[in-house]
Amino acid sequence: MNAVKSLGAIALLMIATTAAQAQSTIVMASTTSTEQSGLFSHLLPAFKQASGIDIKVVAVGTGQALDMGRRGDADVLFVHDQAAEEKFIAEGYGIRRYPVMYNDFVLVGPASDPAKVKGQDIVAALKNVAAVNADFVSRGDKSGTDAAEQRYWKQAGIDNKGTGYKACGCGMGPALNMASSSGGYVLADRGTWLSFKNRGDLTVLVEGDTKLFNQYGTMVVNPAKHPQTKVADAKKFVDWVISPAGQETVAAYKINGQQLFFPNANTAK
User: Fold this and answer.
1) Residues of the domain holding 257
2) Is 46 found in the same domain as 90?
3) Is residue 22 pLDDT above 50, yes or no?
4) What are the two backbone dihedrals, phi and then psi, of residue 224, each rounded to the nearest 5 degrees?
5) Nearest-angstrom CA–CA distance, 167 and 253
6) Are residues 110 and 207 in the same domain?
7) Looking at the 3D structure of the chain, how many domains does it have?
8) Could you tell me which residue ranges the PBP domain spans (predicted)?
9) How many CB atoms lie within 10 A of CB 10?
């Protein structure tokens, strides 16, 4: 009888442990740039060690990540389109937006630079691309990178982007692969570019323009909209990633000695 009771107690303990483990997993909707740059393989193990919480990342474009939050399919978001993030908060889908880190966008293209874009002016570069109908690969996926690219075309006053313009509806890595194989231009976040192995003849041609600044933010999905949101665990991630420990972990991620992201939780808006 005692053995039966002991087995029953062990079974109950296992069930409780399994339930606790299930409660210690949250879903993060984030961008392909944070995932394909390798940041999360560096960042999330450090968070789990500090908190015991697992994070399942769904890496999509920022627009899709925000839509996941609107549907209640994620607990926390980690994205990079500040205007869209602020709209998400204003609509009541998120509790509060917190800046986390930044890097920049770069215009990548063939070393021969047939459109003569090399320099620090992204708007002038896109005008040149359109003028000569140069091959240009656009994400076309409503991501943060795509939103930035479309903003630059608008600033250039260009509606007709040329016959070489192609939207792939894909992530940053596939877009870079397409540009590498076709010898085209592409706007990329620097983090994914630094981790990209299939560069071929591609090189950075436009960088340093203040317009190319790329801010990342994080938000917990509002439980008033979606009661199933694991608010406590999601907030633990937000609190950690903007804390000194989380910010130091972001800064420590490097490839070949180059830092990919720069923490600015306490200085950015």
Assistant:
1) 2-102+215-263
2) yes
3) no
4) -65, -30
5) 31
6) yes
7) 2
8) 19-244
9) 10
**33-85 pLDDT per residue, tens:** 899 899 999 999 999 999 999 999 999 999 999 999 999 999 999 999 999 99
Tokens of 234: 């999601």
Instruction: Give me the count of residues in the chain.
Output: 269
Same domain, 97 and 222: yes
Which residues of the chain form beta strands (DSSP E)? Answer: 25-31, 54-60, 76-79, 94-110, 136-138, 165-167, 185-189, 202-206, 213-221, 254-255, 258-259, 262-263
For residue 61, what is the DSSP state? -
Q: Do residues 94 and 125 share a domain? A: no
Q: What integer best gives the mean pLDDT of the chain?
A: 92
Report whether pLDDT(233) > 80.
yes
Parallel, antiparallel, or unpaired for β 136-138 and 202-206? Answer: unpaired
CATH number, domain with residue 170? 3.40.190.10
Q: Tell me, what DSSP letter sits at residue 226? A: -
- The per-residue pLDDT for 100 is 98
Whole-angstrom distance, CA of residue 186 vs CA of residue 193: 11
Q: Which token pair is 246? A: 């989380």
The span from the CA of 134 to the CA of 62, in Å, is: 27
Please give the structure tokens belonging to residue 180: 């590498």
pLDDT digits (tens, 9 = 90+) for 178-222: 999 999 999 999 999 999 999 999 999 999 999 999 999 999 999
Whether residue 163 has pLDDT greater than 60 = yes
User: Do the bridges between strand 213-221 and strand 76-79 make them parallel or antiparallel, or are there none, so unpaired?
Assistant: antiparallel
